[in-house]
Design brief:
The chain contains two helices and five strands. The mean pLDDT is about 90.
Length: about 70
């Protein structure tokens, strides 16, 4: 990932079943609210947080999380 490249972490609430694997893997990026729904605390993922975001995406058993490329940071 280039230093000025950014990624966006998002959740598909229609797919999410509230297992909480994302929170377990990346608690600094995602937490569950009182209804066991994920809340993304850091949506614009920097190079520093990319490995953690990747791990959260791969940990989701229902593929509700995604990480997409964003417009490069200026």
């Amino acid at each position: 990932m280039a230093p000025n490249e950014s990624h966006r972490l998002s959740v598909d609430m229609d797919r999410c079943e509230g297992y909480g694997m994302c929170q377990q893997v990346a608690p600094s990026l995602i937490h569950l609210n009182d209804d066991d729904e994920p809340v993304i605390d850091i949506a614009e993922v920097s190079a520093e947080h990319k490995p953690l975001a990747d791990a959260a995406v791969h940990a989701c058993p229902v593929v509700a999380l995604s990480l997409s490329s964003s417009v490069p940071l200026q």
